[in-house]
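INPUT
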Amino acid sequence: MIWDWEFTGRIIPDILRGLVVTFEATVLGSIVAFALGLVLALLRRSRIRLVSGAVWVFVEFVRSTPLLVQLYFLFNVLPDIGVRFSSLTTGVIGLGVHYACYTSEVYRAGIEGVPRGQWEAATALSLPVHRVWTGVILPQAIPRVLPALGNYTISMFKETPLLLAIGVLDLVGAAQEAGSEAYRYVEPLTLAGICFLLLSYPSSLLVRRLERRVGI
Amino acid sequence: MFENFSHFLSVLLQGVPATVIATLGGIALCIVLSFAAGFGMLSPWRWARLIARVYVEVWRGTSEVVQLFWIFFALPLLVGFELLPLWAGILVLGLNHGAYGGEIVRGAVQAVPKEQHECAVALSFSPVQRMWRVILPQAVVEMIPPFNNLFIQLLKSSALLSLIFVHEITYQGRDVLEPNFTGQIALIYLLMLALYLVLSVLITAVMRVLERRAAAAVGRKPVEPAKVLGRVEGGAI
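OUTPUT
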């Protein structure tokens, strides 16, 4: 018998518990990524060359190296310099910072997409700098970048299983553990795959609809 | 701090061949599957379209780690033979990125102006000639920049193979940590990250050469990097 239904039923609670952890990591990671990404995008526009240059190097470095190694780095180096976080927190920071570097490019494109006239109008009204950003530029830039941010949330959701490498018992971690106890990998890993498919496919359809609505 | 530097470097360098083999193998499989999936989705046969769609959605919709574990742990139990870790790794890298590549191929072929098609029909080219001599040469130019991105992603994903005990760079780095050189952990990891950076710069360099050649062959200027970046970022996933 290839598929054991009784075993499948037994491991479902574990898998669902893992799914909750995966969700937690995705939501918290997205919040970090969206906030930090905006900060990075704004810093990159800084007139101080040193700041914008440093941000550029950081973004390029993070984007062209593997997330797994970055997670290992945080997990091993932070305690070494005396900072102790739980593995989930470390994972959220890792995911958040990694994706912030991608979202910063998205924000940048969004900000650059705001027509020049809007900047000129804001200057003509002699608005203070923070009002230009919060009142004129960002309200126009953010809706345009929402679909791309949605896409990155979905990719982050699919990348959270990497956290099992630093000891977070997420969906795949739970499936892996259930599998290694009984030496039956087919059911738990297939279930984990189905979970991902069931959640990420509808979300990407949703993002596509959002894309059409914002008109990109 | 630097007394063990050469030791670290030599251990990490031992992982480079496995990383390179996995990446090149993955890229080869990825290219084949991308074209199969891309043409499948454009095919006039319903079944081919359906199979290609299902392949793309399933492999893009699930997590790479699950795919890796499934192929390495579950598949051997189903089919009844062992899979070497490196082979399992190449298979997953190729299958996963081939799904993304399928959309690149489809998009590039569809982006070739319709008039080109009509011209080829007017010259009474056969469907194969049309594709091979008119559409593909133009589509390939469009494909190279997004494929460059995809291959760099593939290189970065090869770090996952350390989870199934392939002795590539990440595995070697973890291995050298075992004796625990306190205070030098950051150095080892930075060295590891730098190695990946070097490899990804190499891929980009090769792809830039290809891009210039391909563009010259069809008499076009290469696309500006800035434009490519914007387009690929917007269409991620």
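end of record. Residues 225-237 of chain B have pLDDT under 50 and may be disordered.
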